[in-house]
Amino acid sequence: MEETFFSRVFKSFFCVLWVVFSTQMFAAGQHPGYATLQNDTFKIGNNQIERSFLWNNGNLITIQLVDKTNARTYPVHHNKPDFELPNETAQVTNGTFKSIIVPSNGIHASYFAVEVSFSLGTVDVKRIYRLYNDVCVIALDTYLKGNATHSWLSSTESVADQKNIERVEAGGNAGIYPVLDRVALGGKHWKLEAVELFDVTDRNNNLVQTTRALSYKTALLRGNLLFANNSESGNGIFFLKEAPCSFVQLAYPNADFVSNFGELKVVGLGMDAKDLFKGEWQKTYSSVLGLYRNNQFDCYVQLHKYQKQIRLHKSKADEAIMMNTWGDRGQDKKVNETFCLNELQAAAKLGITHYQIDDGWQSGKSANSAFAGGSFKSIWQNPNYWKPDSLKYPNGLQPIVDAGKKLGINICLWFNPSIENDFADWEKDANALLWLYHKYGIKTFKIDGVQIRNRLGEQRLRLLFDKVVSDSKQEIVFNLDVTAGRRGGYYYFNEYGNVFLENRYTDWQNYYPYWTLRNLWMLSKYVPAPRLQIEFLNKWRNQGIYGSDKFAPKNYAFDYLFATTMAASPLAWMEATGLPKEAFTTSTLINKYKTIQHSFHEGTILPIGDEPSGTANTGLQSIQDKKGYFLLFREDNADVKSSIKVHLPVGSRLQCKDIVSDKQFQIVVSKSATIPVEIPTKNGFLLIEYTIID
C-alpha cells in the first residue's frame, strides 16, 4: 500500500545525495547534519542538537542529549531501547544505517535524514531521524512490516485496583504499550505539562486542555505535546506526537505519554500488530524531541520553528483572505453562475483574494444539500459527480475563473472525498481534483467529510493527497476541515495545507467574536496561527436572535471582527452580496493589512495579555529577530490604558508604527516586561509594527 520513505524520495527528487557510511561524517559544508558510529556509540546531530545512543545492533538506546545553543547536556539513565513492541522478544538482528540529504520540494524545508533499520524476529523496523537547519529538534518517523503474532496493546489496570507499594519496583506497572520513543533523564524534580488539543469543533468549543503535574510513579498523560522542565538544572525537553488528536487516534492505548520520575515515553503507534503487511511498509505516528531553555518562550519558539519546516510559509500559496459563502447558511440554494459573478464583484470591493464555492457547485447532490435526495454514498456511480452542475453553470466554471482573474481573486472549491470502503476510490477522487486543476486552474480545495476509521483508510487518504500535490507540481493546497469526524487534527497531514477550524453561524447564535479570538489565542501557543483559518461573519444578519446579549456580533465594529482573524488565515464566512454598504469601508483596513500580512505571519506568533473573555485586555505578538508586530484588543472593559506583558527583553526601546493610522511613536519595555497600551474605545484594537532600536 505505502511506498517506503526512500523510494518516494527517489521518485520526487533527482538531485538527492545518497551516502552510506559507518564511521565517517558528511563532508564539511554539504549540510550541518551528521551521523557517526564509533565502536558501539552512535551519534546524530546538527549545529543545534545532538543525540547519542548505544548502537545495540540498530535498536538504539539513548545515552545523552546535547543542546548546543544553550551549552546544556542531558545525561540519560536507562538501558532499555528507545523503541519497544510488547511481546516482540526476539533478538535484534540486521542493524544498518544510511544517511541522506533531502532537498526542499517547495513545501517542506531541506533536511538531513538518518535511516536506522533492524529486525525484531519477523518484524522489520525502519526508523528515520530528521534534522533541520538551525532547529533544536530531532523528528522521528517509524515504519514497520512483517508478521507479528501478538497484539501490542493491553487493557489498563485501574490504579485503585493495584496493590500497595512495599517495594520501589512495584510502583512501575501501568499496562503494556508500544513505545515510539523514550528518554530517562536524571533527577526527580521534573515539572510536566501535557497539552491535549481537540478538534471536532462542531461539538467542541474548548480546544486546549493542559495537565500540569510533578513526575512521580508511573503516570499516563494524554495529548500531542509533553513539556518537561527540571527544577534543579533548568533544562527543558518536549515531545510532540505527530498524530491526530488523542480522542480520535487509531489503536489508542488511552495515553500518549508515560512518565516515571525522569523517564518519559511516547506511546501509541496508530496501529496494532494486525495492521502489518508482510511486504509493505506501514508508517506509524511520528515523534519529535526538542530541547530548550527552561522558560515558556523558548519552548514555543522551537516548537513553531519545527512546524514551519514541515510546510514552508510561502506568500503566494499560503497567504489568503478567503471568502466562503456557506457561513450565511445559503447552503447550495443560491450558488450558480450569476450568483458567483455578482459575489466576485462585491468580494473584490471588500479586498478578498480567494473566493471559495462550497458544496453545491458540483453535479452530484451531497448529503448536506438543502434539497432532498442528496447523499455521499456510491458517489462514483455517477461519473460526472465532480463536474460543474450544467444547470447552475451552463458554461462550466470558466466564466467564474475568468472574472476572478480580472478582479485579482483566485477561485477555490469544496470537495468531499468518497469515504466508502475506506477511500477505495481514492485514485478517482485524485483524478477529479486534478481535472479541475488542469481544466480551470483551481489550486485550493476545502477537504470535507473525511472519516478515518482504520489504517487502510488513512493510507489511501494520504495516497490521494500525495498524488494530487505531486501531479500538480506542489501547486495544489488543501483547507483541511476538522469540524467533525476522525480527521488529522493539528499535527497530521499538515504538510498539505492549513486547517479549516470551525463552523460558526449567527443563525444558530454560536458565533461570538471573543469565542473565536479565544480559540485562536489558546491554540497559537502550540500551532502556528497562519495554519488556522479563522472566521469573521456578517454581523448584520440575525441581530434579533441575540437580543440584548452584550457580546453579540452587532456590538462590534466590522473592522474589529476582521482584526480577530489577522494573526491567522482570515476567512470571510459570508456572502459578499449580503453585506450592507457600510461593511465595505473595512476594505481600507483589509488593504493595509495586506501590506504586512506575510511579514506578520513570518514571525513566531504567540498569545499575550489575558485570555479573551469578552472583557479582557488581550492580544497576539509576532516575534522576529529585531522586529515584530503587536495585535492588541481591548474587549468590553473600562481600561482605556493598560499594560500587557510581551515577549521582549526588559528595557528594550521600540520604534512603533500604527498600521491603521500610520502614527509613529516609541515605547520602552518595563521592568515587568510589559508595554503601555492605550485603546480609546471598548471593543477596539491596535495593529502595531515595532523595531527594537536599543
Features:
single chain, 694 residues, alpha+beta, Beta-galactosidase, Chain A, domain 5, TIM Barrel, Immunoglobulin-like, 3 domains, 11-stranded antiparallel sheet, 8-stranded parallel beta barrel, 12 helices, 18% helix, globular, disordered N terminus
Q: How many H/I helices?
A: 12
Strand content: 25-35%
Q: What do we call the CATH topology of the largest domain? A: Beta-galactosidase, Chain A, domain 5
Report on the biggest sheet. Answer: 11 strands, antiparallel
Under the CATH scheme, the architecture of the largest domain is Distorted Sandwich
Rg, nearest Å? 26 Å
- Mean of the pLDDT scores? 91
Which descriptor suits the 3D outline?
Answer: globular
Amino-to-carboxy terminus distance:
57 Å
Structural class by helix and strand composition = alpha+beta
- The unreliable regions are 1-30, 157-174
Q: What's the CATH first level of the largest domain? A: Mainly Beta
As a percent range, the share of helical residues equals: 10-25%
By DSSP, the count of extended strands is 36
Summed up, the domain count is 3
Summarize the structure.
The chain is of the alpha+beta class and 694 residues long. The chain has twelve helices and 36 strands. It starts with a helix and ends with a strand.
Structure description:
With 694 residues, the chain is α+β, with helices and mostly antiparallel strands. It folds into 3 domains: 292 residues, Distorted Sandwich (Beta-galactosidase, Chain A, domain 5), CATH 2.70.98; 283 residues, Aldolase class I (TIM Barrel), CATH 3.20.20.70; 74 residues, Immunoglobulin-like. Helix content is 18%, strand content 31%. Strands 1, 7, 8, 9, 10, 12, 13, 15, 16, 19 and 20 form an 11-stranded antiparallel sheet that branches. An 8-stranded parallel β-barrel has the order 21-22-23-24-25-26-27-28. Strand 29 and strand 30 form a beta hairpin. Helix 4 runs parallel beside helix 5 and helix 7 runs parallel beside helix 8. The termini are far apart.
